[in-house]
Specification:
Aminoglycoside 3'-phosphotransferase, Chain: A, domain 2, 49% helix, alpha+beta, 11 helices, 2 domains, 13% strand, 9 strands, 334 residues, Phosphorylase Kinase, domain 1, two-stranded antiparallel sheet
Length: 334
C-alpha cells in the first residue's frame, strides 16, 4: 500500500523539512493499532524511520496536543526521537524502533520487565506537564455514552456493571497531586521493546491525567499475580504504597477494564451498525484470552474475537467490583 495521493504533498513537505529531499529509498506500510493513523517504514539515506499520517481529527484526536506530548516524551528519552511533527498537516517522522516481543524476548526476568516498566512510567509522570484535555472520569462518561448509543448489547447485559460504576463515579475524584503527564493507553501495542529497553509510542490519547490511569493499565496488561502488582507499585512509588494509593489503584484497575471493554465494543459496533451481539457477558475469561493471544490461538482482528474480548473486559470489571477488597477501597476513596 502506497501513501495516498491526497497525503503526498504533506509528506513531501515533511521529508524536505526533515532530510532536505523528497526522495525515499523505500516505503512499506506498518500495521498499527486501532487509532486509524497510517504508518509506514521509510528509508532515507539508508536509514529507517517511521512515518505517521493522522487520518481522523476530533476534540480527542488532536495532533496539536498529541504531538506536543510525543515531543516531550521523546525529550525525556521515553519515546523514539522525533525528526518532524507538523500538527496542521498531521504528519510526523520519528526514529524507527526494530521491535521484538517484550512478552517473550525480554532479556531479563519478568521481575526485571516490571521494574523497568514501572521506572519508565515514573519518569513519564515526572516529565514537564502535558497539555490538559478533560478530567479523566468525565472522559469516561463520554466513552460510556458512546457505547450505549450503539445498542450493541442488550441493556440488561450491563445493568449491574454500570450501576456499580455509577457508585465509583459518585466518589472518585483525581487528587491534584496525582495529575501528571499521562499516556493513558499503555496497551501492549504501544510498548515497544528493541532488545535492550522499552519505548512508549502512539501519543494521541495523552494528556494531563490521573497517575493511576497508567499504573492500572500496566497492571492489567502485564502483572500476573499480587506479587508482581506489588513489585510494580513498590518500584513506582519508591516504597510500599499506602492505603490511599492502593485503594485508588484497585478502583482504577476496574475502571480501566471497563474503559477497554467499552472502547473495543464501540469500535466493533461501528463495523456493523444496528447489529446486536447475542448473549450477556458470558464467554472466555480475560485471562484465557490473554493466554491464547500469547500462544497465537486467538484472533482479535475479527468481529467475533473483538466481541469476545470486549465482553471479557466488562466481565472482569464486574467481577472486580463485586469483591470485598473493592468495597473497602471504594469507602476509603470516598
Amino acid at each position: 500500500m502506497s501513501i495516498p495521493h491526497t497525503q503526498q504533498p504533506a509528506v513531501d513537505r515533511a521529508l524536505m523539512a526533515a532530510f532536505g529531499t523528497t526522495e525515499t529509498d523505500s516505503v512499506a506500510p506498518v500495521s498499527g493499532g486501532l487509532s486509524g493513523a497510517l504508518t509506514y517504514r521509510i528509508r532515507v539515506g539508508g536509514i529507517a524511520y517511521l512515518l505517521r499520517i493522522e487520518t481522523q481529527r476530533d476534540t480527542f484526536k488532536d495532533p496539536h496536543r498529541g504531538y506536543r506530548c510525543m515531543t516531550l516524551a521523546a525529550s525525556a528519552c521515553l519515546a523514539p526521537r522525533v525528526r518532524y511533527a507538523e500538527p496542521t498537516d498531521g504528519v510526523a517522522i520519528m526514529e524507527f524502533i526494530p521491535e521484538q516481543s517484550w512478552a517473550t524476548d525480554y532479556a531479563g526476568t519478568r521481575g526485571d520487565l516490571i521494574v523497568e516498566a514501572a521506572q519508565a512510567i515514573r519518569a513519564l509522570h515526572q516529565a514537564p506537564a502535558f497539555p490538559p484535555l478533560v478530567d479523566y472520569m468525565e472522559g469516561m462518561d463520554a466513552v460510556l455514552a458512546g457505547f450505549q448509543a450503539t445498542g450493541l448489547l442488550a441493556p440488561e447485559a450491563t445493568s449491574d456493571l454500570l450501576d456499580r460504576y455509577r457508585r465509583v463515579r459518585a466518589v472518585y475524584r483525581t487528587e491534584p497531586t496525582d495529575l501528571v503527564s499521562s499516556h493513558n493507553d499503555l496497551n501492549p501495542r504501544n510498548i515497544l521493546y528493541d532488545g535492550r529497553r522499552l519505548w512508549f509510542v502512539d501519543w494521541e490519547s495523552a494528556f494531563l491525567a490521573d497517575r493511576h490511569v497508567d499504573l492500572a493499565t500496566l497492571a492489567n496488561f502485564i502483572t500476573h499475580d499480587q506479587g508482581e502488582e506489588d513489585l510494580l507499585l513498590r518500584t513506582y512509588f519508591g516504597q510500599a504504597p499506602d492505603a490511599r494509593q492502593r485503594s485508588r489503584h484497585l478502583v482504577m484497575r476496574q475502571v480501566n477494564h471497563l474503559f477497554y471493554g467499552l472502547i473495543m465494543l464501540t469500535a466493533v459496533a461501528r463495523q456493523r451498525p444496528g447489529q446486536r451481539a447475542s448473549g450477556g457477558l458470558d464467554g472466555p475469561s480475560l485471562a484465557d484470552i490473554h493466554q491464547a493471544l500469547g500462544a497465537g490461538t486467538f484472533i482479535l482482528d475479527g468481529w467475533d474475537g473483538q466481541i469476545a474480548y470486549g465482553k471479557a473486559r466488562l466481565a472482569q470489571a464486574l467481577a472486580g467490583m463485586k469483591t470485598e477488597a473493592f468495597e473497602e477501597a471504594l469507602k476509603l476513596v470516598g
